[in-house]
Description:
By secondary structure, the protein is α/β, with parallel strands linked by helices. Helix content is 39%, strand content 16%. It is built from twelve helices and 15 strands. Helix 1 (13-22) packs across helix 6 (198-208). 42% of the residues are buried.
Amino acid sequence: xxxxxxxxxxxxxxxxxxxxxxxxxxxxxxxxxxxxxxxxxxxxxxxxxxxxxxxxxxxxxxxxxxxxxxxxxxxxxxxxxxxxxxxxxxxxxxxxxxxxxxxxxxxxxxxxxxxxxxxxxxxxxxxxxxxxxxxxxxxxxxxxxxxxxxxxxxxxxxxxxxxxxxxxxxxxxxxxxxxxxxxxxxxxxxxxxxxxxxxxxxxxxxxxxxxxxxxxxxxxxxxxxxxxxxxxxxxxxxxxxxxxxxxxxxxxxxxxxxxxxxxxxxxxxxxxxxxxxxxxxxxxxxxxxxxxxxxxxxxxxxxxxxxxxxxxxxxxxxxxxxxxxxxxxxxxxx
Length: 334
């Protein structure tokens, strides 16, 4: 099949790009060229900023596709642009939404695709919901062949999955754990969370490409395994060979302290216990199962980060903030 991926080199999409190319598909990426040097040799690129719609239309002139995958559509105006660019030119359009769009607070911790979409805590999630609504409207009224995919917390080898971190990624938290400093964990750390390695996500996504049962449908793709946040941080510390110095702080307090905005990422997402029912994606893609266990994936990621200096981005502002929060919590008299 001839497949166009918009983006194609991010945490989720790079694994998909590599797998589709390995499966023998004709894969083209439309992006600005950030990580294109890491792509397989048989992947072609169209260097273009898709937000420049006239330029994108010119670059895509005369082309049609079996599938278009959108990984960088965050607000309705972007999927509206895609509809103009690809209507009548693709047999399938797969949109990456977000599992954070599911109802918060949850009425039931077991999430299916029929769980209501409503998140008053995070604009990002509300924008994803609006994108889904627009695309499904185009499917119903114009036959636009959309498939919606909702990832939850998907990670790759470059960054460990965390609940609380700064704007520069996960390294500073890893460094704090290595140095024995207090590490902030939201809540009491016992809520359940689901993390999914990007290689597992790619297997299910690839099974939806060209799948007649996927048109007009929404799927989430996650691991079946749920772990606590305390377990996640303890696995990191164990792989580093140190004791975890955990500092538990309520999500509400973390958001109130500032300057970081945790209402969306915690109250609207990671502070909630979530267990995903993956029956629907398994029916559509027989044989799919996530095989990278949480502890295995985290340990592998830690080893990769320690071996690659480019993944070790310092965040002194966040480090200082953690010190102040931990000190304040220690001095609170109960």
